[in-house]
Request: fold
Amino acid sequence: MSWQAYADRITSQGCTSGALYGLDNASEWAKSAGSKATASEAQAILSRMSSNSTEKFTYGGQDFIVLRNSGDVLYGKVGAGGITCAKSGKALVVGVYDQNLQPGQCNNIVEGLAQYLSDAGY
Reply:
């Protein structure tokens, strides 16, 4: 399966956008069509995750407040939507959702994919 198929899988399950980035340098592996997110925004998320920061951050041009940051998983909120970011062994998996998806559903989608990738050596 291509990396793009994984990003598309995130959106096919209800997230408004999805993306995968390398953990080493936040290089973009794949992102969903129409996503405005940048690798520099992903790098900023990785920096926040590694320092367990709870400062507001920007992704895809939207400002998110941090609800929880464990270092491996970060949950953010903006209005009725939010974001889930999870690390696998080699990737950062990101899913953004709106009011049409429950936060827990996005968490399951993103964290499930991160676990799958970890189990596969990524």
About this structure: Helices lie at 3-12, 39-51, 103-119. The first helix runs from residue 3 to 12. DSSP finds three helices and seven strands in the chain. The first strand starts at residue 17 and ends at 22.
